Amino acid sequence: MSSQVKHTLLADSIRLAFGTYNVLNGAWMRSETGKVTGILGRNGSGKSCMFRAVMGGLKTQEIFVRVDDEILTGSMKM
After folding, report:
1. Helices and strands counted in the chain (H then E)
2. Which one, 6, 11, 43, 53, has least CB within 10 Å?
3. Are 21 and 2 contacting, i.e. CB atoms less than 8 angstroms apart?
4. How far is CA 17 from the centre of its chain?
5. Could you tell me the end-to-end alpha-carbon distance of the chain, in angstroms, rounded to an integer?
6. Helical residues (DSSP H) of 17-72, grouped into ranges
7. How far apart are CA 9 and CA 77, in angstroms?
8. Residue 6 DSSP SS3
C-alpha cells in the first residue's frame, strides 16, 4: 500500500454576489486527496464561480477556507 499523505480542503459559508444578484449564499464544499469531488448544478447555478472563489480568483463577501488544520486568510494568487 502507498503511504501517500492525505489532505483535506474545506470551503464553507461562501457568499458571492454581483451587485444585487446573489450567486452563492451559504455554499460549502469538502474535498480530500485520493477522492473525486464533483460539483453538480444547472447552467448558471454558480459552479464555476464557487471554484474560482475557493481558489481566490473571485472576491467574495464571505468565505472560510481551511486546508488540513490551517485556516487560509488573505488573497491567494492564481
Report:
1. 1, 4
2. 43
3. no
4. 15
5. 34
6. 47-54
7. 17
8. coil
Q: Encode pLDDT of 29-77 as tens digits.
A: 999 999 999 999 999 999 999 999 999 899 999 999 999 999 987 655 4
Q: List all residues 6 or more positions away from 78 whose beta carbon is below 8 Å from its beta carbon.
A: 55, 56, 57
Q: Which amino acid is at 56?
A: G
| CA angle (38, 45, 47) in 5-degree steps | 35
Q: Which amino acid is at 52?
A: R
Best CA proximity match to 48, nearest among 56, 60, 39, 59: 39
Residue corresponding to grid cell 486568510: 73
pTM, 2 dp? 0.80
Q: Please state whether beta strands 8-18 and 21-32 pair in parallel, antiparallel, or not at all (unpaired).
A: antiparallel
